[in-house]
């Protein structure tokens, strides 16, 4: 009997989905990492991914050009762009450094005018760019500006005026020129689509009637973050008309209230059963703070980092927040306040303690090692800590990580550079050694205090999942940096300032920089020649040197190295020298 | 009130217009320089602060912390109470000599916003976002901003100011000069008038009024957060109202305000503020006013002698 062969299908076709099906499947993949992986499988999948990708995240705006992005993802709807190096937050980067968004907008306008969402961090954004955005992208609906600069409230006004479908307007921590609160009045009278409104960054008053009308029109409003000038009366009215809010940033909380007003405010907070995030609270008084208690039962994130609460005030508030997972406070709460955290927040996963007065040498407001230990004892799920303090011990840190071995983000800032363990006078090497040995999931680490090369040896040896490392005033020799470059294979971002690392250290990372997003080295011992050598050997890196006035010609004061497929940038100011092998 | 001795340090740096300011006993922010300057001080400098801070622990490239050098308890006590009379008559030759040591032509470069540094010797440390700091500071001044707007709207509202008297006295010290003076800020109404006053007080040659700010000395001031800002950037009115900060203890009738000129430093009592200076008919009148408000008898006599 003949075996009739099955109807043969050419091999290529048998594995070939129609493109539409493939794209449909791929839209279910949201994570950029997964999408990137998919695009590497084969050309068909690359193409399918390109056509179906809706969101792109660009961690360094100079790593790629807008033309390349627009060409590869012609139907992009949502872009997240990050610009300046993180140390620009600390005034280490000149103002005119670059990262202007305008060239991106121009390219998108011609290629993908269907852009709907733009999220920018540390980019330069002018009013002209905001106007261009508002006028050229008819479907635009979400704008988020974080730590950007170059624009004013006039720019916001054009966005409010022209973006008919705006869903999100999120303005945070920017260097904004705050001319007036008029921008809020630019939303059309029938405009009602807003779901996210965050103007906490702004100082000038907005018209409260306009605000209240806007809020009552926008029935889908979920996130509302007021600025400091918003009064408690206004807040009271807003809460009453928008009980559906899930995230609320209150305005000033120091106004004196009559008992009647206080009761009414508390009652209004009682309506807000859906609140998960509470922030704002500039200068809150203890009495006023008690008005929020009714809204705290479902709270997962409480940001009190703009008001200098005392320990008792925090201790009174926390029992009302049983579900708290994230807490940001100032160190005014002291160790006692942190003990209250440990005692009342069993579900806490993240704590950030900022300094009330970073230059307060009298230690009037401070937290010590006891505070952080107390939190770790009561909060076993803790995985994110940012802690500013003036003293620390190796033993305390070891205790903390023993209590909470799941840290993914460990950022400790002992504010006096190069300070040793204050009880033993030893370097803090063992502290961070304990962190990297115990916390296998550690992704981000910031170190401080008196540290020798031993710390880096530990990091290189144990911190195998480390992706971001921030180093200041540490190390004894080039070996320090070499340990890290050799050992931390997943490292993506490395920031170093004021360490004795020179050219040998810089060049030890030759093999690594192309798999990293960026390297920052300032006030180290690197020279211009070292940078040139790096650039010569690694053509796909941009090596930028920011010179400071009056420094030696051969010194590389600030070095910023990043991988790129776009070649050296052409918009660098004169103070930034770009070296490349081209 | 004691006269505070302000001493300038010769700068070896050629950078911008920042002066050295030290030891503000009323302001934790204390000193700062914008640039990385190695300063030679003729005062004994305590290189190891009691808390073992920067000077000892950090590599020598770092600036020494001026505040450690010049905190009150480090100052030789005699410096604190030098009698006013030594600098009477507009300073005299001694002052000129001292002045010449420190008088440097300032560069007219504006401070880069990015170089702003708050009171510490190290740029960008601790690593707090400057916007976070600025945000908090702006909030602290929010009430003062409100005050300003009301005053500008010409409604008589100084009720939010806790301080009764309309005089605002300023402790003036000058870099390179031993003695400080006191000035009533309420008497001046503009920066040029303040500058004239200061130049006269310290025996500096008169400025050419048509210089338009490109002259040799630049007026800067330190606000309560320790930021050094160009005085000319701020309106006079704003200055006046800002100095009436109701959050500061208002029990004192003397408001000492800090301003740092390239050479001249005003120190503020109660935490540091901007200043306003109104114009006097002359130095004598100025001293007379100071005498009128001076609480300390001995000092009062000295003021009176100066005023003739």
Note down, in words, how this protein is organized.
- The complex is a heterodimer of chains A (582) and B (308).
- Chain A is of the alpha/beta class.
- Among the domains of chain A are: 16-53, Monooxygenase (Up-down Bundle), CATH 1.20.1280; 391-526, Ribonuclease Inhibitor (Leucine-rich repeat, LRR (right-handed beta-alpha superhelix), Alpha-Beta Horseshoe); 541-582, no CATH class.
- Chain A is built from 21 helices and 23 strands.
- Chain A has a 21-stranded mixed beta sheet. Chain A has a two-stranded parallel sheet with strand order 5-7.
- In chain A, helix 15 (369-378) links the parallel strand 14 and strand 15 (384-389).
- In chain A, helix 6 (102-111) packs parallel to helix 7 (127-136) and helix 17 packs parallel to helix 18 (453-462).
- The radius of gyration of chain A is 26 Å and the shape is globular.
- The model of chain A has no long low-confidence stretch (mean pLDDT 92).
- In chain B, helix 6 (142-152) crosses helix 8 and helix 9 (283-293) runs antiparallel to helix 10 (297-307).
- The longest helix of chain B is centred in the first third of the chain and has 11 residues, at 92-102.
- By secondary structure, chain B is of the alpha+beta class.
- Helix content of chain B is 28%, strand content 8%.
- Chains A and B meet through loops of A and helix 5 of B.
- Chain B: This is Auxin-responsive protein.
- Chain B: Homodimers and heterodimers.
């Amino acid at each position: 009997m003949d075996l009739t062969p099955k109807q043969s299908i050419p091999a290529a076709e048998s594995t070939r989905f129609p493109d539409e099906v493939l794209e449909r499947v791929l839209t279910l993949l949201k994570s950029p990492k997964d999408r990137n992986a998919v695009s590497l499988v084969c050309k068909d999948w690359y193409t399918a991914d390109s056509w179906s990708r809706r969101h792109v995240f660009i961690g360094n705006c100079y790593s790629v050009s807008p033309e390349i992005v627009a060409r590869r993802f012609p139907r992009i709807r949502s872009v997240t762009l990050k610009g300046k190096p993180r140390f620009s937050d600390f005034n280490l980067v000149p103002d005119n450094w670059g990262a202007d968004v305008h060239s991106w907008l121009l390219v998108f306008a011609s290629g993908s005018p269907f852009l709907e969402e733009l999220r920018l961090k540390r980019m330069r954004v002018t009013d002209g760019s905001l106007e261009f955005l508002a006028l050229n992208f008819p479907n635009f609906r979400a704008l988020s500006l974080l730590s950007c600069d170059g624009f004013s409230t006039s720019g916001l006004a054009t966005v409010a005026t022209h973006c008919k479908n705006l869903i999100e307007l999120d303005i945070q921590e920017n260097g904004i020129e705050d001319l007036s609160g008029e921008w809020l009045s630019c939303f059309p009278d029938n405009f009602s689509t807003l779901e996210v409104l965050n103007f906490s960054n702004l100082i000038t008053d907005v018209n409260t009637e306009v605000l209240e009308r806007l809020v009552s029109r926008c029935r889908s409003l979920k996130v509302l973050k007021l600025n400091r000038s918003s009064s408690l009366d206004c807040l009271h009215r807003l809460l009453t008309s928008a009980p559906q809010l899930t995230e609320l940033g209150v305005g000033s909380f120091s106004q004196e209230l009559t008992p009647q007003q206080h009761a009414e405010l508390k009652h209004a907070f009682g309506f807000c059963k859906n609140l998960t995030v509470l922030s704002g609270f500039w200068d809150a008084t203890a009495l006023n703070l008690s008005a929020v208690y009714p809204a705290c039962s479902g709270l997962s994130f409480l940001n009190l980092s703009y008001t200098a609460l005392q320990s008792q005030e925090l201790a009174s508030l926390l029992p009302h927040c049983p579900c708290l997972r994230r807490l940001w406070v100032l160190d005014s709460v002291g160790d006692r306040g942190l003990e209250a955290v440990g005692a009342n927040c069993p579900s806490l996963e993240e704590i950030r303690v900022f300094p009330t007065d970073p230059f307060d040498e009298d230690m009037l407001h401070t937290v010590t090692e006891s505070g952080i230990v107390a939190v770790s004892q009561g909060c076993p799920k803790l995985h994110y800590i940012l802690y500013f303090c003036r003293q620390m011990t190796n033993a305390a840190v070891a205790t903390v990580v023993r209590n909470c071995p799941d840290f993914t983000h460990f950022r400790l800032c002992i504010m006096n550079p190069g300070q040793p363990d204050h009880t033993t006078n030893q370097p803090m090497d063992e502290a961070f050694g304990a962190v990297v040995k115990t916390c296998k999931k550690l992704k981000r680490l910031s170190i401080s205090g008196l540290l020798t090369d031993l710390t880096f040896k530990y990091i290189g040896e144990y911190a195998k999942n480390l992706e971001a490392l921030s180093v200041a005033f540490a190390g004894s020799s080039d070996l320090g940096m070499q340990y890290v470059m050799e050992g931390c294979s997943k490292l993506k971002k490395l920031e170093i300032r004021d360490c004795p690392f020179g050219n040998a250290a810089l060049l030890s990372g030759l093999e690594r920089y192309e798999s990293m997003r960026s390297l920052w080295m300032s006030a180290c011992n690197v020279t211009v020649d070292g940078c040139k050598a790096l650039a010569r050997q690694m053509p796909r890196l941009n090596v930028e040197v920011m010179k400071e006035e009056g420094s030696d010609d051969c010194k590389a004061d600030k070095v910023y190295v990043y991988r790129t497929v776009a070649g050296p940038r052409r918009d660098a100011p004169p103070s930034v020298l770009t070296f490349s092998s081209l | 009130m004691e006269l505070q001795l302000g001493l300038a340090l010769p700068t070896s740096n050629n950078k911008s217009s920042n002066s050295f300011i030290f030891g503000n006993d009323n302001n934790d922010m204390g000193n700062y320089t914008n640039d990385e300057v190695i300063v030679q001080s003729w005062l004994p400098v305590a290189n190891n602060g009691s808390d073992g801070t920067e000077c000892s622990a950090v590599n020598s490239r770092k600036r020494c912390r001026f505040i450690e050098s010049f905190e009150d308890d480090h100052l030789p006590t005699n410096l604190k109470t030098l009698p006013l009379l030594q600098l009477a008559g507009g300073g005299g030759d001694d002052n000129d000599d001292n002045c010449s040591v420190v008088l440097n032509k300032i560069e007219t470069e504006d401070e880069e916003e990015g170089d702003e540094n708050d009171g510490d010797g190290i740029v960008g440390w601790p690593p707090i976002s400057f916007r976070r700091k600025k945000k908090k500071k702006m909030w602290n001044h929010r009430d003062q901003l409100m005050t300003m707007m009301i005053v500008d709207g010409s409604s008589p509202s100084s009720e939010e100011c806790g301080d009764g008297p309309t005089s605002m006295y300023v402790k003036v010290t000058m870099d390179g000069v031993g003695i400080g003076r006191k000035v009533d800020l309420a008497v001046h109404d503009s920066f040029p008038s303040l500058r004239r006053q200061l130049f006269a007080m310290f025996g500096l040659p008169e400025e050419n009024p048509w210089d338009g700010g490109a002259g040799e000395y630049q007026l800067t001031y330190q606000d309560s957060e320790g930021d050094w800002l160009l005085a000319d950037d701020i309106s006079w009115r704003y200055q006046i109202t800002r100095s009436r900060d109701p959050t500061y203890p208002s029990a004192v009738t003397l408001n000492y305000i800090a301003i740092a000129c390239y050479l001249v430093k005003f120190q503020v009592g109660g935490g540091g503020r901007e200043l306003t200076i109104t114009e006097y008919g002359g130095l004598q009148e100025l001293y007379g006013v100071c005498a009128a408000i001076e609480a300390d008898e001995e000092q009062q006599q000295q003021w009176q002698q100066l005023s003739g």
